[in-house]
Amino acid sequence: MSYSKKYLPLFIGVAMGAGVFLGSKLDFSNPSAKLFSYNAKKEKLNRLIDYIDYEYVDNINTDSIVDVTVNRILENLDPHSVYIPPEELAGITESMQGDFIGIGVSYYPYRDTISVINTIKGGPSERSGIKAGDRILMADNDTLYGDRLREEGLANKLKGELNSQVQLKVYRKGTGVFDVVVKRGKVPLRSVDASYMLSDSLGLGYIKVNRFAETTYTEFKEALDILQREGAKKLIIDLRDNGGGFIAPALKMADEFLKDDVLMMFTKNKKGAIDENYATGKGSFEKGEIYVLINENSASASEIFAGAIQDNDRGTIVGRRSYGKGLVQREMALGDGSAIRLTISRYYTPTGRSIQKSYSNGNKEYFNEYLKRYENGELQNADSIQVADSLKFKTPGGKIVYGGGGIVPDIFISKDTTRVGETLNYMLRSGRMGGYIFEELDKKRAFYNELTEEQFKTEIEIDDDFADGFLLYVKNAGVDIDLQDYREQLKKYLKAIMAQQLFGTDAFEKIINQDDSMIQKVMSIEK
What we know:
- By secondary structure, the protein is of the alpha+beta class.
- It folds into 4 domains: about 5-75; about 100-190, Pdz3 Domain, CATH 2.30.42; about 190-410, 2-enoyl-CoA Hydratase, Chain A, domain 1; about 420-525, no CATH class.
- The chain contains 19 helices and 21 strands.
- The protein has helices at about 10-25, 40-55, 60-75, 85-95, 125-130, 150-160, 215-230, 245-255, 300-310, 365, 370-375, 420-430, 430-445, 445-450, 455-460, 465-475, 485-505, 505-510, 515-525, and strands at about 80-85, 100, 105-110, 115-120, 135-140, 140-145, 165-170, 175-185, 185-190, 190-200, 205-210, 235-240, 265-270, 275-280, 290-295, 315-320, 325-335, 340-350, 390-395, 400, 410.
- Strands 3, 4, 5, 6, 7 and 8 form a 6-stranded antiparallel sheet that branches. A 6-stranded mixed sheet has the order 10-11-12-15-16-21, sandwiched between helices.
- Helix 7 (about 215-230) links the parallel strand 11 (about 205-210) and strand 12.
- Helix 1 (about 10-25) packs across helix 3, helix 7 (about 215-230) runs parallel beside helix 8 (about 245-255) and helix 8 runs parallel beside helix 9.
- The longest helix has 17 residues, at about 485-505.
- The protein starts with 7 loop residues before the first helix and ends with a helix.
- Keywords: Hydrolase, Protease, Serine protease.
- It comes from Aquimarina addita.
C-alpha cells in the first residue's frame, strides 16, 4: 500500500523496531532459554507495533514494512546475512535438499505446449514410457497448453505427494494423443554434473560438483567409487562456478583425501569459541594426485574444500583466485514461512587463515569486487593478484599461502580475454541455444532417439550451416551477436547442448572439456 513520504521516518523507525522484535522470535537450532526470556525493550516494541496497527490514522501494511526492514537490518551486518521471503524459501530448500517430488522430466514451454527435453534416468516418467519430444497437454484436469501458458505455475501442476498418481494427456509425433498415468516419485536435483575417465592411460578421472547440497557427498562418493573401479589413480575435482552451500558435504569430500586426524578447518564465533573439524580414517583416496579447479566464482564450501587440500599439501589448486567468502551462516525460521540466514561465525583453513574478503566499504563494492580484479589484470596475470604479506601463512610442507580474500591457486590459468566464452555461456544460460537445439532435434526426433552416446560422438557433426542457423535464430529473436571469428567454439557448444538434451550432463561436460585450458594444463603435467 502506498503512503505519504512525510510519514516515512516514523514508519522506518517503527519498522526498525519490528525488525529487532522479529529477531527475538528467531528459531535457532540450539535455542537458549536466556535468549527468549522476558525483556522490557522487546515488550515496548511489541506494544508500539500494536498501537500502530490499532490506532494510527492511516492504514499501514506493516507486513511489507517489516520485510523491507529485515532486509535493511541484515544488509548492514554483512553481505551474506540475508532474508528469504516465503515465496522463495521453498525453492531454495528444495534445491539444497537435492530432490523433489515430481514426474521426472526436464522440459520447457515451447510455443504453446510443455515440451519434454528429456526424462530423468530411472525416474517416474521414463518408467511410464514418456520420451524426449513429447508434449504434455494436460495433467489430470489442468490444461497445460495455450496462449496463456506460464512457466511459473507449471511445476506445481506436475509436482505432488510421494506415490500420488497424475494422469497425463500426451502428444507424440507419429503416434498422436494418448493418456498415461505417472506415479510421482523422488526426482534428484543432481549436484555432481559429471564424472568420467579423462584418460585411461594416465589413470586420470574427473568429477564436477556444481554446489554443496544435502545429497552431494553421496553423489560424489558414488562417482568416486565408480572411477576407482575404472582405474582412476589421479583425480580432477572441478569446483569452478560452485558458489558453495552446506559445509558438511564439503568436509566429507575432503575427508576422502586426507589422513586420519588431519585438521580440515575450524570455525570461531564472536565469543571466541573454536570448533575444529578433523579428517577420519575413512578416506578411500588418500594416495594419488589430486587437482582442484577453481575460479573467481568458487566460493564458501568450495573454498573450504580447496583450503583443506592446499593447506595440508595434499593436492594442487589450479585456476584463478576464488571468491573469498569465509563466513558461516545458519538458517533460522521467522515463523511465517520466511527465514533468515545469519552469519554466526568465521571459518579458517587448517593453517589458520581467513579467506574472507573485506566488506568494510559496503555490500555494493563487495559484490562488484570482480570488476576490480578484471581492471587490475589479475584475471589474466598471476603477478597482478593482490595479497598482503601480513596475511602470509606456511603449510606443513613449507608452501606459502595467503589469507584475506580467497584461495590463491598453486598454478594460475588466465581467463579468456576474448570474452567469447562469456558470450556463449550467456547464450546457454538464456535458453537460446537450448531452444534452437530442441527445434533441430524435433525435426528428426526418431533418428536422434535411436543413437547411442558413442554413435553421437563419432557420427554427428555440427557444420557451418547448422551454426549459421543458430545465428539467424537468435537474430530473429532480437539478439545480434558476432561469432564469425569463433565458429569452432560455437559449434562445440551447440554439439555439447545437443548431447546434454539427448544423454545428460556427463555428455555435455565431455564435449565442453575437450580443449579446456585448466584440464589441458593438468594433463600436460601428468604426461
